[in-house]
Design a protein that fits this description.
Number of domains: 1
Shape: elongated
Distance between the termini: 36 Å
Largest sheet: none
Keywords: Membrane, Transmembrane, Transmembrane helix
Number of helices: 3
Oligomer: single chain
Transmembrane segments: 31-59, 65-86
Helix content: over 70%
Structural class: mainly alpha
Length: 87
């Protein structure tokens, strides 16, 4: 064996690499959950304070936002999974 074989530094174990889509889909899911919790707290406060007309305005808005966000996150997660599978 030559001297160069002994001089090589030990290699660090590599971290599993995730693509940006995989990382961002997790963040988006977290922010979506925070958004839903925020809307839920606002709705509960409106019920507690007696602003019933606000509830009739807020509930349809929440359902439209939740439907869009859930569909978007589903497609984003599917694309991220496919990209990770191809690596």
């Amino acid at each position: 064996m030559s001297r160069q074989d002994f001089r090589q530094k030990p290699q660090k174990p590599q971290k599993p690499r995730h693509n940006w889509l995989f990382r961002w889909s997790g963040r988006l899911i977290k922010y979506f959950c925070l958004l839903v919790l925020g809307f839920g707290l606002v709705t509960l406060m409106a019920i507690a304070l007696g602003f019933l007309p606000v509830i009739h305005f807020v509930f349809p808005l929440i359902s439209q936002i939740a439907r869009f966000a859930a569909t978007f996150l589903l497609f984003l997660g599917a694309i991220a999974t496919i990209i990770e599978g191809l690596r």
